């Protein structure tokens, strides 16, 4: 059953700060965060998948692909801001249980705003290099760090967001060829859409209402009109909202669909092979995921539920066994593992296989880290202060994780080739340290 929510406000904020963000050609990221259970999403190019979500009792972050933005406008407010922050580059040492080709040596850390809950990699200035965007939940801002060209990043440029931004994604919502920025504001019950001016700086934001506590956002063309729409997981309302792109980067009022309790992370992917993106949502308080199939015109049927471990906080969709069918990867924060649900071929899923992680897996991404043509798993273990890499054996099963140390409270993870060497690097948002860390892939 679908309900329509009316829209009311459009807020525009002009910014004087510049920032840059770029993404690798092989990653898909979804990230989302919440106050009681949080998750965030972000999307870039298409070969790695990442998802992250965070919560106060259970945390996780997520990321997603394609982009779409939401809702109609009736009043406009202009705010102008110009905030630029400089970012430090400190290094932290990594540790691993084993060292398969010493994949990720010491990372470089870059300053962000306060409490970066969500991270995405996207080429925001069109130079072919992935830049970094974070949603900073305690400073009510986003940070854009431009890639200098060799895999290092300039100081952040910040843009004001709404109250408690917990999820960010990037997509070209107005069709001008430039990646725009979409942010979910958990405490404001809305999303912001920032148009890219064309050089990696962003114009005044537009604001669209959502349901209660929007925790995760993705952008994808759900109705096949060639325009990127927006899907948001409304954690407090226990539903997902779909905001259709009207054609110029503005959005109609959300249409909502019921989910399980506390949807904390959302992803979009074609799970039944009909060419239409379906919705996958992690229902944190219900300990399950829901799959809502696209009817073909951008409306969705009632969710089909699959059990997970406790506190599923982050979800991504990716073909992990090379059968050209989209599988599901979800973190179970309460049991410290990731679960794989394999697609049977018609959009239904078989019983999960579980793989141990570190303590508090709040965010997950899928990316081909060792360049063997199969998707590996990357997970941010927030309580253990590390990231885990689980290599795909080639048939959709995974090796034991190898861990790499992070700064305090890693909450969101994604992957992108930041230095142009053809290998996917790892990017982690460290919530308590107010940094993003970049791990360069050194695998031969």
Automatic annotation (TrEMBL):
PANTHER family: SENSOR KINASE-RELATED. Residues 22-99 have a biased composition (Low complexity). It comes from Rotaria sordida. It holds the Pfam family FG-GAP. This is Uncharacterized protein. Gene3D superfamilies: 2.30.30.100. Keywords: Signal. Residues 22-111 are annotated as: Disordered.
